[in-house]
Every structure is written in C-alpha cells, then in structure tokens.
Amino acid sequence: MQFKSVVTTLIFALSVTACSSINKVVYRIDVPQGNYLQATTVTQLKTGMTAQQVQYLLGTPVLIDPYSNNTWYYVFLQQKAYETPEQHTLVVNFDQKGTVSNFDLDKPLPNEEQVEVNNTIINAPDAPTKSWWQFWK
C-alpha cells in the first residue's frame, strides 16, 4: 500500500513538472549596457568636431585606444527579456589636431519612430449597472 502511494506521488510530481515552462515564467527586464546610443545623436556627429564636442554629444567613451588616444569606442549592448543581445559599436577616429577625421557605426540603430509601442486601448463592454441587492436579476 505504501509503495502505491509513493509511485502515485512520483508520477504526479513528474507529470506536473513536465508540463511547466519555468524558464519563461520569470520576468526579465531590458538591460542596456555601455553608452546609450540613439540614432538622433549619432546623426549629429560630424567630421571636424573636437573631442570635447564629441564627448558632450555622446558621453564618455567606453574605451579609448591604449596605444593611441586618437580612437574612441562607444559600445551599446541591449538585451530585451529573453531575446538575444544586440550590440552596436561606434568607432570615432581623431586626427593629430584633435578633430574627428571619420567615424563608423557597425550596424544601424533602431529609430525611435520605428519602435512599436503598444498603445491599445481596451474598452470594457457596457455592462448594465446593477445595485448590490439586485444580484438575482
């Protein structure tokens, strides 16, 4: 008799855990790391700008080339919930005068206009108003 109850409990426990999807139940926040790069600020970057102007526009770079201070790296890593992380790297090169000679963004940034926002308004169905004492109607 005791053996049957143990086996029944074991089968029930295995069947409950087999049907669960525990890995997607836990909420995971969006995690931006590095320099937050926006398409609007990167388009403002022009050749001929000084290092101070670039730092004012984009912030402090994540990495300055240790062998020559003429290359700055801005790295932006975005991971949304359970999706794969997406990395964008902006490399800014300066000439000997300290002005921007060229810059390169490895892949385009998402435009803020293209980001889909869920602004769906859900209207509750029109239910007739009842008093608390008219529950049988």
TrEMBL record:
Keyword Transferase set for record: no
Domain Outer membrane protein assembly factor BamE: 34-103
Keywords per UniProt: Cell outer membrane, Lipoprotein, Membrane, Palmitate, Signal
Pfam families listed in its UniProt record: BamE (PF04355)
Signal peptide: 1-20
Membrane topology, record value: Lipid-anchor
InterPro entries reported in the protein's UniProt record: BamE, BamE-like, BamE_dom
Subcellular location: Cell outer membrane
Keyword Membrane assigned: yes
Function: Part of the outer membrane protein assembly complex, which is involved in assembly and insertion of beta-barrel proteins into the outer membrane.
Subunit-structure text: Part of the Bam complex.
Database matches in HAMAP family: OM_assembly_BamE
Family of the protein in this entry: Belongs to the BamE family.
Protein name, UniProt field: Outer membrane protein assembly factor BamE
